[in-house]
Amino acid sequence: MCIDSNRRRPPPRLQTPARRVATNGDFRRGSDDSAKEDTLSSGPTRREDAAARREARSLDVTQRIIVSVIVAVVFGSFSAVLAAYLAVRGDQDLPSFSVTGLWIMTGVMGLATAAAILLINRRRPYSPWVLLGLLPMVVSAPWILG
After folding, report:
1. Where are the alpha helices (DSSP H) in the chain?
2. How far apart are CA 67 and CA 48, in angstroms?
């Protein structure tokens, strides 16, 4: 009795494109045609590569949009609500220098939010689009300064 007869055989290598035939636990190639198929389609085709790249790019864009919306809603609403509060009740509840300081902080928070959204979308943070962050400050300016 040979010692090697009791050893387990190593698992067969994966050969995805070709057809395999199982006989008594031994995997062998099917026919000569399957060997030709294996050499012709050994890796992913250009279409598969392009589809995978499109899918990855689509997923990346979707993730950036979702994160941008979350940042805009969370931090943009903070800036907008603070500006609205200062315009409606700020002069009654707070001294004038506090209202002015918080109003400036509204603008800074809006600018930071706009810059964060631009950075998430791989744009320059010093773009003219960052001025949209000043919108809550500009809208509340007549009530704050008037």
Report:
1. 32-40, 46-88, 90-93, 96-120, 135-145
2. 29
Give CA–CA dist 135/87, Å, rounded: 14
Provide the CA 135 distance to its chain's centre, in angstroms.
26
How far apart CA 87 and CA 117 sit, in angstroms, is: 26
Domain boundaries, given as residue ranges, for the chain: 64-145
What's this model's pTM, rounded to 2 decimal places? 0.61
Chain-centroid distance of CA 118 in Å reads 13
**Could you read off the pLDDT tens digit of each residue along the chain, which spans 146 residues?**
555 555 666 665 655 554 444 555 555 554 445 444 444 555 678 888 887 787 777 788 889 999 999 999 999 999 999 999 999 998 898 898 899 999 999 999 999 999 999 999 999 989 899 999 999 999 999 998 88
Query: How far, rounded to the nearest angstrom, does the alpha carbon of residue 4 sit from its chain's CA centroid?
Result: 53
How many CA within 13 A on the CB side of residue 117? 23
CB-based contacts of 127-135 (< 8 A; 24+ apart in sequence): 133/79, 133/107, 133/109, 134/107, 134/110, 135/110
